Amino acid sequence: VSANEYKEALLAARDDIDILLAESACGPLMVRLAWHDAGNYDKNLASEKWPIAGGATGSIRFAPEINHGANAGLINGVKLIQTHIKEKHQLISYADLYQMASSRAIEYTGGGPSLGIRYGRQDVDSPDGCQKEGNLPDGEADPDTGNYGGTSGTASTEDKTPGGHLRKVFYRMGMNDEEIVALSGAHSLGRAYHDRSGLGAEQTKFTDGSTTTQKFANGKVTPFHAGGSSWTEQFFVFDNSYFIVLDDDTSDPELLKMSSDKAVFKDDDFRPFAEKFRDNKDSFFESYVKA
């Protein structure tokens, strides 16, 4: 396949993904799907044979990884990409399609920055490429131990504090404090569902489908399935409202604020970045793109 043919295939897949995002209002789901496919990366295993270090390899489409507790509900995103995109665009890897759908949810329907995503990722082709459970961050501490994270992943993420836990997760991937806070801002999109993560409410005034109109960044009203707790009032728009809400003690109590969210303002080293992103959307966008 020539470079031009591959580029044309990518652009065609992008156009179909844009249609899927607009018609199905599945952008937040795609952001979570791509993050969970990539977020198991361990830089300390980078010298090992691929795909031992993990990362965006498309492994999330296989069991047992898709059945990990942190991935509850993501089978819906896998099925959407398979049915609406992959079957038509066989040349593009699952790993690339997941990342493309996530980036377009931010850039296109979300109104966020252009991420400059590069493509050409290779897929694992069997469950043998699945990653260990336990590499992704927790929103709240284990009620029995009081600890965040655990020891079951490629490296321990266990810590008594949410900030310490986040560092163990993200430092393992080679990221720094600014990048941790920036990536946390993706919670401007989407909702937490109690029946999946055990967090949030069954529904709120913002997610019950009857009292709050949801719109894409272009102002178009979007229908959506009711339920869950959102971090922001307009949870299909990618902006810095996550940081504004988090630092506002008078914000609506039905908006979600997990302990791992609150850490970006409570942690002394995270706080300067959270304050900068709260006050300046462009600064947030710039740091998010880099992260």
TrEMBL record:
Keyword annotations of the record: Heme, Iron, Metal-binding, Oxidoreductase, Peroxidase
Domain of life: Eukaryota
Source species: Proboscia inermis
GO biological process: cellular response to oxidative stress; hydrogen peroxide catabolic process; response to reactive oxygen species
PROSITE patterns in the record: PEROXIDASE_1, PEROXIDASE_2, PEROXIDASE_4
A Pfam family the protein falls into: peroxidase
Disordered as annotated region, ranges: 120-163
Residue span, Plant heme peroxidase family profile domain: 91-291
InterPro entries for the chain: Ccp1-like, Haem_peroxidase, Haem_peroxidase_sf, Peroxidase_I, Peroxidases_AS, Peroxidases_heam-ligand_BS
Molecular function via GO: heme binding; metal ion binding; peroxidase activity
Listed SUPFAM superfamilies: Heme-dependent peroxidases (SSF48113)
PANTHER family, sorted: CATALASE-PEROXIDASE (PTHR31356:SF66), THYLAKOID LUMENAL 29 KDA PROTEIN, CHLOROPLASTIC-RELATED (PTHR31356)
Name this polypeptide is given: Plant heme peroxidase family profile domain-containing protein
Family in the record: Belongs to the peroxidase family.
